[in-house]
Amino acid sequence: MTAWLLSGCSPQRDLTAEYHAAYGFPLASAGARFGTLPPPVKNTVRAEAGSAEITNIERLQRPEGTVYRVDFRNRDLYPSLYVASDGNLLNPDLTIARGAPADTSAVISGGPVTGVNPTELPAPVWKTLSAREAGAEIAHINKDTWGDRVIYIVTFKDPSHHPRLHVTADGTVLNEGPK
Description:
This protein has 2 domains: 30-97, Nuclear Transport Factor 2, Chain: A, CATH 3.10.450.360; 118-176. It contains 5 helices and 9 strands, in the order ααααβββββαββββ. The chain has helices spanning 2-8, 15-22, 30-35, 39-49, 123-132, and strands spanning 54-62, 65-72, 81-84, 89-90, 96-98, 138-146, 149-156, 165-168, 173-176. The protein has a 5-stranded antiparallel sheet with strand order 1-2-3-4-5. Strand 6 (138-146) and strand 7 form a beta hairpin. The relative contact order is 0.10.
């Protein structure tokens, strides 16, 4: 009686077959898809969203060319980005919202920069820097996240005339460092 209970009560499953069926296709995480994006697209996504968590990247073929739609975990703070393969930021109707980050060395003279390349800064940050610190030479740019906000910390080579700035991605200056 005991042998019957042990051998016939539950059907045996082939766990090996289930394992292979579950992993029969390559895993494609959002991070892996981000790694395959063209460099201009990566730069635009970083400039616009910083370290916001990406949940999906979709490649769309349009008559105008390839467009990438990038979705984020916090959709209220970070709506989907549409980016052309050349790095241009697009509106949802695929018209150009803003051109790809350009070489901005003519606006503010560059120097050794750590943490963030000046070409990766969002346009509003450059607008703020060029309006407030025209001609100042940058020593360092670092990017940090305060809560859900991306902050760019800009240190200049002449801090007595150009104090350190904390600038949000939308160009708002939060506070100035000591003079």
